[in-house]
Give the backbone structure.
Amino acid sequence: MKRRRRPGFTLPELLIATVLACLLMAALVAVVVGHVRSRGRMEAVMKLQDDWTRVQFLLDQDIEESIASSNASGCAASGTRLTLTVAGTNQPITYYLDGTNLRRCGPAITVTGELSPTLTSDDLVAERVTSFEVDLSDPQRPFYTLTLTDPTGVVYTNGTQPTGAMMRSRRITN
């Protein structure tokens, strides 16, 4: 007597379909995880770029003020320290590394953005700074590089060049 085949799937067919579905799900999870990590790195780099731009603006403003108010000797560097002399203030402006913090010591900045001739401050400019290097080959246009990191291991290095142009390099590490 001939057996009649019932409609449906056999056990081997179901096992093969399950294995294929698991492989597809694993591939999909790997793609999603990679996308999430990549997005996190990009957001970290963008935040570090924003931080660097803020620091650069402050440094460039102080350098321009120093150059405009003095002769060619308005800047002095020593290792990871930049000292700027500004006419009409009671002390120079000094940028220096304090551990992994970049600090600015000197005349306070008023609400209008001007330097106070009498008030002084020692302010935190940026955190997690791993490198601050100054080159005064040309005192009229100091060259500096600043390396910032974030807790996830993203490193951002940027600097100015003697021509006044900006240089950029990014390195993402885990």
In short: DSSP finds one helix and nine strands in the chain. The first strand starts at residue 75 and ends at 78.
